Amino acid sequence: xxxxxxxxxxxxxxxxxxxxxxxxxxxxxxxxxxxxxxxxxxxxxxxxxxxxxxxxxxxxxxxxxxxxxxxxxxxxxxxxxxxxxxxxxxxxxxxxxxxxxxxxxxxxxxxxxxxxxxxxxxxxxxxxxxxxxxxxxxxxxxxxxxxxxxxxxxxxxxxxxxxxxxxxxxxxxxxxxxxxxxxxxxxxxxxxxxxxxxxxxxxxxxxxxxxxxxxxxxxxxxxxxxxxxxxxxxxxxxxxxxxxxxxxxxxxxxxxxxxxxxxxxxxxxxxxxxxxxxxxxxxxxxxxxxxxxxxxxxxxxxxxxxxxxxxxxxxxxxxxxxxxxxxxxxxxxxxxxxxxxxxxxxxxxxxxxxxxxxxxxx
Length: 362
Known about the structure:
Elements: E1 15-19, H1 20-37, E2 40-41, H2 51-59, E3 65-67, H3 70-78, E4 83-89, H4 93-102, E5 107-112, H5 115-128, E6 132-137, H6 152-162, E7 166-172, H7 184-207, E8 214-217, E9 234-235, H8 245-249, E10 258-269, E11 272-275, E12 290-291, E13 297-302, E14 307-311, E15 323-327, E16 340-345, E17 348-354
Parallel strand pairs: 1-16, 2-9, 3-4, 4-5, 5-6, 6-7, 7-8, 8-9
Antiparallel strand pairs: 1-10, 10-11, 10-15, 11-14, 12-15, 13-14, 16-17
Helix pairs in contact: 3-4, 4-5, 6-7
């Protein structure tokens, strides 16, 4: 049964939906922003998960996309996306074989930070008669994956360039540790320091005679800074298109486009509202979702199937059966909980997009 053509307020709950006009404006604004900065836009789709939205990004000018998993890349390639960066290390034999096979379908690149992993990918690519593009991930302070800045970076890059079946295409980092800095000047300085470390590694590689085609960095939380720093060629910001509560806290200055429609299922007291949307609908552990048009919200606590809203003062205006709209706390942890995103324009459902990347964790 389709909801297309029906009023948005007829959607049964919980329902994940986007305001299409706002989404289109956000995408256009980001595309223009990165064009002004003179960098390519390769949006990360780990929190988008929906090929129909990814194609909107490509039509707006994105040069390709970023994803986190081989399975996500398989979904995107099957949907006709031709240029994909897997911003992750691919290390198990089965995943390496899938990566190599996928390179027959699209231009797929991945990250490495380990010599044995490089050897394994090269052997698989040679056996399959394909070529895999690899970027060296550089740890510029995130303390997650990546090679420490310095001579080990060009050493690994030289190994890639010398290994049959592989192509060295560049360097990548994620300066996301700076998102915790609330002072704008400190955040600016922190991002600049990370990109300076990355550029030092670029210079080392080029000094060793290695062409560095891609210098990838930046996410939605640093989109106002990183694109304007010298040396960066691509930005991976993607989740900003939804402008959820977390991205707003990180400084994204766009319009909220992603919403969850919920229903009031109980009013136990005048200061408590119970919703049918718990952490299986909107995630907990992040910034709390925001109820639109509900004043005096003291807290939103999420159990598995219930959203427990506590008010600062008694208010009985919302009744059992009434619907409310929430801005998710973090879209990256919301979209994959749902099978469908409803696209709404002028109050009516215009489209239903299957979240085809849902459950793709391998």
